[in-house]
Amino acid sequence: MVESAPIRVIRQLIAFVGVGAVATSIDYGVFLAGFFGLGLDPTLAALIGYAVGGVVSYALTRRYVFATTRSHRSAAMRFIAVMAGGFLLTGYAMRIFVGGLGLPPIIARVFTYGVVLVFNFLAHRFFTFRR
Fold it and tell me: What is 44-78 written as a DSSP string?
């Protein structure tokens, strides 16, 4: 049975959120360890967590969300480009939420995830793993 486009997008979004939950758990763990354990600046700790979570995200997203026929080299290069955009967005959002709005870093990081989630899904769907 061929899946309709809306159903495929919904399935992909659900899988993306599931994979994101795993990658985000790792990301947030690294963030907490860096911020509380090592005393790093919250933005720096968030960026390190984002990078570590990104490695996990690539492997899981490629396999379970978009099932692309793109070569690893091509998909990985595109993934890195999207991750660079998400990395910058993470840094800016943390600066705005913590420095500009005065939110506690732990809350700011949660809001940052929401912003970057939307960016990452759209970029990966239409650029990184596009068939």
Answer: HHHHHHHHHHHHHHHHHHIIIII---S-HHHHHHH
Residue ranges of domains in the chain: 5-128
Query: Measured at the alpha carbon of residue 94, what is the angle toward residues 22 and 46, in degrees to the nearest 5?
Result: 40
What are the DSSP E strand ranges found in the chain? none
Cα separation, 27 vs 60, whole angstroms? 14
Token digits of residue 42: 């919250």
Nearest Cα neighbor of 119 from 74, 77, 68, 83 is: 83
- Residues 32-88: pLDDT tens digits? 999 999 999 999 999 999 899 988 988 888 778 876 677 778 878 888 898 899 989
